Amino acid sequence: NKMHEIEAVEIPEADAIKALRAEINCTQAKCAKMAQVSIKTWQCWEDGTRTPSKPSWGMFLLATDKHPDFLIIRRAVNA
Predict the structure, then answer these.
(1) Which member of 19, 54, 75, 79 lies 3.0 to 4.6 Å from 8 by CB, making a disulfide possible if both were Cys?
(2) How many helices (H) and strands (E) does the chain have?
């Protein structure tokens, strides 16, 4: 069984990152946590001084149900 290959996501411009954060009504700190980066890194993404890595941006998109190809479904926890 071969795992499905995950295509790399497109990296957006700073304005699109800010717009997406506004759309999901999320703080920079919470978005940074979902992307698994520091808040300083997130702020640099939004001000355009740095661009997200494809893995970090993909993680953020998965965490926010915004990934173009995949959706994470939480497993039921057996009590």
Answers:
(1) 54
(2) 4, 0
